[in-house]
Amino acid sequence: TTQIVAGNDAAIEDFPFIAVVEGRAKRQDPWKHYCSAVIISETMLVTSAACIRGPKVNRRVKCGLENFSDKNIQIRTIKHSKIHPHYNWNVKDEFGVQFDNNIAVIELHSPLNFGPKCQSISYTTIKGCGGFKNCQISGWGFIDDNKTETETLQFADISVISNAECNDLVDPKVPKRQICTYDNKKQPCNGDAGGPLTCEINGRRVLVGVFGWLYDCDAKNPTFYTHVAYYTSFIEKWTGITGIP
């Protein structure tokens, strides 16, 4: 999982669209925090492909969770999950990772009950990064490179940079279907995978990206998100939920 380095404690009412994905290999095993997902309807969530790939395990979703000790939360089991068909974990780039098409959707067995602590967010259909303002990241990942864990939801204000700017900082080049954030102090860390990058567009906060990967947690390099606007047909096909311009 990924966490926020140099972030601040968050109120779940400000980020009601973020959910925890937990997993366990066997029924007798304790549930463990795997990653995050983003709620786009009462039964549908968007996350990273890396969040739900791998060995078959029992998984569940928690909504309305601010601190891992919270009791008054909603728990739902997963009915279906669908990884993008062109995501191929066996194909590695120069970094030794596969980060293109790193997106998946989750369908719950029963709907969430929406309220102040559990709510959906619309996703953008605007490609590129022009006009994105007041962007934020959130999650429960490690808060430093020493793998210090947090029990409380973290958030940080973050700057989105163009892919051209991103390409000046990294090599090889970043696929256009990725969106980059950069801050020399703040960024996600392990445990935040699948979590939201949200921005204000035309005065409305929307989902722009889901956290995909990063070099490390020391904030010297950009962080990479799957740009949801390039995957609207995939999301619509499997969830029936359309984005907004």
Automatic annotation (TrEMBL):
The keyword Lipid metabolism belongs to this UniProt entry's keyword annotation: no
Q: Signal peptide location in the record?
A: none
The protein's superkingdom reads Eukaryota
- InterPro entries under this entry? Peptidase_S1_PA, Peptidase_S1_PA_chymotrypsin, Peptidase_S1A, Ser/Thr_Proteases_Immune/Dev, Trypsin_dom
- Molecular function GO terms recorded: serine-type endopeptidase activity
Instruction: Report what the protein is called.
Output: Peptidase S1 domain-containing protein
Q: What GO biological process terms does the UniProt entry carry, in alphabetical order? A: proteolysis
Q: Which organism is it from?
A: Mytilus galloprovincialis
Where does the Peptidase S1 domain lie?
4-240
The record ties this protein, via PROSITE patterns, to: TRYPSIN_DOM
Pfam family, any one: Trypsin
